[in-house]
Structure formats: C-alpha cells, structure tokens
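Table 4 source record.
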Amino acid sequence: EELVAKAIAPVKKQFLRPPPTSTLVKEKKSKRQLKRERHQEKKSASHLCPEVAKSGDVSSCPYKDKCRFSHDLDGFKAQKPDDLEGECPFCPYGLACRFSGTHRRKSSEVNGLNKDVQKLLWKNKMKFPKADAKLKSLGLDRPLKKAKDGSLKTHSREKKLIDFREKLYLAPLTTVGNLPFRRVCKVLGADVTCGEMAMCTNLLQGQASEWALLRRHSSEDLFGVQICGAYPDTLARTVELIDQQCTVDFIDINMGCPIDIVVNKGAGSCLLTKPMRMKGIIEATSGTVDKPITIKVRTGYFEGKNRIDSLIADIGTWGASAVTVHGRTRQQRYSKLADWDYIYQCARKASDDLQVLGNGDIYSYLDWNKHKSDCPELASCMIARGALIKPWIFTEIKEQRHWDITSGERLNIMKDFARFGLEHWGSDKKGVETTRHFLLEWLSYTCRYIPVGLLDVIPQRLNWRPPAYSGRDDLETLMASDSAADWIRISEMLLGKVPDGFTFAPKHKSNAYDRAENG
C-alpha cells in the first residue's frame, strides 16, 4: 500500500535488485557536423546508387558522374553486411537488399501520394470545388490563391455512418503509432486504427513525408486518418483532398494536441479556447465530404477550467459523428490521472447521434470494464500509452484476463514488428536502420511493462514506476532495462548488428512518465 501510494510498482521481493549505476552520456554533435558526415557517407561505397542496385549495371544511372551516390559495385559488395535471416518481404532494392535472392514485388499498402497530384500541390494549382463551395456558403472563405468555385451547389448529403460502439480503438500516436505498430495491434485484437497526426499545411504542399502518415495496410479494416490545422478553409480543402486520393473510413480532426509548436500555430488544443473556430472547422469539413468527421479534444486548455461539457451538445449539431475526450487539460499534458468522472459527464450531455469515446490511462481489461459499466452512454474507449507499453492489452480485454506473457512471446511480437517494418520502410540498409529506429522508440515504452507474475498487486497501473528488478529469465530482465544500450541489444537480435558509431536517444524522453507524443 505504501509503494502504491508513491506510484511505485509493488514487485515481489525476490525479484528486486539494486538500481543500476548511471553511465556517462556522450556529447552530442552539432547539426552542421552531422550534415557534413551524412554528405560524406552518401558518397561512400556503402551508399550504392538505387538505379545501379536495381539493375547491377553502372551505366543504368541517368546522372552518371553527377550522381549523389556511389557507383562502386565492388566496393559496395565488399563492405555490405551479412544478409539477415528470412525472406525478403517486399523488394525494389536489388543488390542493396539485405535478403539476397528472395525478392517479392507486391505491396499490401494503400494511400500513397500520386506524383501528378503532388506536382499540382507543389504549384498551388490543385482545385477544391467542394471545399470552396461549402466555405463560401458558410462565409468562411479566405482570400487565398485558390481554385475557382465552379457552379457546384451546396446541398445536404446523407452522411456515411460509422459505429464505434464496443470496438477497441488504438489511438493515433505520433512516431510510435506507425503502420507496422498498428499491424501488430491488429494481430493482437485492435478493431479500429488511425494514422499518425498529419499537419494540413504540409499535406496541401504535397510533402511526401507527411503523406506517408496516411498510408493504410490491408489488415486495417476500420481505419481513419488524423489531421491537424488551425482554420476552416485549410481543413476543408485537406479533407476533400484526402477523400479524393485516399481510402479511409473516417477523418479525425485533432483539437487536443498539447505540443507548443502546434498550439502556437493556432491548432491542436489552442482551438479549445476558440469555440466559434471549432464550429467553423466542423461545419466546413463535415459539409465538404460524406466521410464521417470525428474530433479529438481535451477537457479544456487550462487546469481547473474544463469546458468541453458546455460544447458537447453543439458538436453533434455542427456535424461531427464522434468525439473522443481525453480526460486531461492542455496544461496537464500527460501528468496526473485522467478525469473520467468529467468524461462521463460529457457523454451524458451529448445528443443521441453523437458518439462519445473516453481516453486516458486504460491499462487493463478491468479499466475498460469499469468505464463501460460506470457510464453506459460511452460508445467506446480509446487506448493510447497502454497499447504502447503492452499491445496485447487488446487481447486481454477481448479474453477478459490478465495475460502473464512470457519473454519469448514478447520477443515474437517484436519479431512481427521487425518484419512489418521491413515491408513498410524497405529491406535495404536504410530500411533496416529506419525499422531499427522505430523499434527502439517503441522499446523505450515497452520496458515499463512489469510481468503479471512478478507483481504483488495486479493489475499494474499506468502511472506506477517500476523499481529495478530481475525477470524470471535473462531475456525478461533485458526487456525490463531502461538503458538504450540494452534496447539496442534487443534490436540486434532482430535486425542484425548496428552500424559502427550507432547511438540512440528516444524522442519522447522515456524517463518522464507524464510525457508521450500522443495528441
């Protein structure tokens, strides 16, 4: 009881051990130094020209001597690392592939960016007739360089419906909620998945890296994308573009992201302070496309000043099909426990045609059951950090049990992630290292999991800090480590040895339990 009161996980005494001694952190290199090293590396034999790699012929590169990459075939073969075990998942990489001789060329992903569309976006010549007509009818059009309205008449269309009731919804999660991770969660029982938050301005500019966040795997049978923007016209044109170019079941608008760079642009949780802007955004987007528009909000902007309950009745009238309420304010970020009583209050105030979902601190099937029984008006619950730490939470909820998962079973889940990552990011050197990077980001969360069999009190709570402990076998002990060096060792079991000089620091600073890059 004393440990739980201090938010320290009550691990059984026989598994406790002294905390590890701290290690010195290497000095970080400057951005200029890193850029210079990247340029030098591109010309090295390890960075073979993609055209030469595909064909095996030096003369196949159209850039000849002006090419940024190496054409040294013999040098590349001499330094190429040993091939990884297994079959090539999907390969346009030729000689650069780390799975020699087992190539396949079929992808099961959709929502790529068409090159012709990208060029129109680059030149600001893309037309948005539906969005512009709706904005004009609402008086929300701004004097931008935009397409002609045409003679399109606005009319009320029948909205496509989506039913979230009782479905297990994996929250959109920046960085770690990538397509391979979502595939892992689908295998383990997630019903609804959503892409990582994409910024509208970047999508409208045709940025390939932003469009990659909209990609969908064929296993994602109920899938949405999450977008973030500050103004009705930007969001309306974005939803029209997504409706034209992508296959999605719903479009979620982020109005809860607490990150400064987003809030300072007037987007994310900044919109919680501007209800009329929220109204304009929801009306404009829902009036532009037939796809269901959902929104994700926090309880309010400032701590102690919740306000969503006063807007919840209007949100459905404005045109949203569903709203997810994260039970914290923007000021709280991820500190303190989510306010589920307030989420229940919002769900009870909503109209019958607006589905309300709750979000915050769900980490076991008991949490899920409690929220659903305490408030039958809730359509469902969204699971975020709980899924990052233990993605098998979806299995636990469906099977109504605490799964005392073994280290071997956990390693198999990580193997699935590595395989899915190589299919998504590629099986050449760059693809392997990109997969490794995102695997390490995920491992910086999974190390917080404490096996059921090691706890004096179950289930583990999301805010409990694990003490230093040993697992029931060496692999379980390794998986419990919060050291990046140990995460790298796990990655080497799955993706081979890291390159010389490799270092890793997690994006979200895993020592801060109240932070996670989740909008």
